[in-house]
Write a structure and sequence with these properties.
Chain lengths: ~190, ~190
Amino acid sequence: MTGQPILVTDRLLLRPFTLADASEVQRLAGDYEVASCSLEIPYPYPDGAAEAWIATHRPGFENGMHVIYAVTRDGAVVGAAGLVEVNRRHGRAELGYWVARSCWGRGYATEAARAVIEYGFSVLGLHRVYAMHFSRNPASGRVMEKCGMVHEAHLREHARKWGVFEDVDVRGVLHDEWRDRCTGPAIRECRVR
Amino acid sequence: MEKQPILATGRLYLRPFDIADAPEVQRLCGDYAVAATTLLPYPYPDGLAEIWIASLRDDIGHGDAAAFAVTLAPGGSLIGGVRLRIDADHARGELGFWIARRCWGRGYATEAVRAVIEYGFSVLGLHRVHAMHFSRNPASGRVMEKCGMLHEGCFREHVRKWGVYEDVDIWGILREPAPRAGTYIPPPLRGISL
């Protein structure tokens, strides 16, 4: 099978992570503000966890479980975006992303998320992409809305984060809606390496 | 691992599934009307019930599930099943249930599900129980509502059932719901025995 392609957008280049990115991942995702907005990121970010996470990417891509990208701007990692929980039987996947705090407010999350959603629909042939965010973090909901995702559910105290039960919002977009609403190209260039 | 107890309600006994239930599970879940409201295959293949019951035992052993066969009396005939899929990290359980078609419309699902929710909260220590049903099957939503669950949303075309993408509603209940004034809710469990 072919490897994970590089996705180029207006300002960003999405490429697979390599082990060389581990220390940068630990530094950026280890930021308290970034970790607190994500269900999975631990705090403090333990040594070795970034290497372990990156090591799952390629096998997970090869067996169709997930597609995870390093989001880069001018060669520097500014975040991560990907599709996880890829479910072929139901034609769906869950979108996830984080952006380094120093890069917040520039629309990078939206730009990277749109590229990944486009990949899910065009390349993986998915029918539906959904995403979840903590209700206390409405900025993430706005990213999803800008990607054309519709609010579908508010799950009360669904996730335990650092010992606290937190409300979670769910948004989703269907393939035909994406085609109808997509104004500009979400991916400028898709390079198969 | 903790042995799963028997739950007694007003009219029902909920006991662990046994491999001897397999033919009856196949017969009852093999009913088109039951299969259409769940993720079960149709026709129900030979051998699947045995595999399912064995996998339940493993999941229960690992703390990943709780599952009960719904019967009308001790030693009585099987009329359904209720299962919790447990996510210990988030102290939550996802509920699934089915009732044999000849027993629909008598409140058995509500009675059994209330007992399992109570078991999830008071014995398993869960914080939240949620459940999903096909939006085209509102009867299942009414069971959830009668169990005190609140409607939390609708996942559009979330599940592909027999080639068709279907909407799914999600309901949830937290361990300590605000009591509704003026309503008497009888205790869901009459007894628990090992």
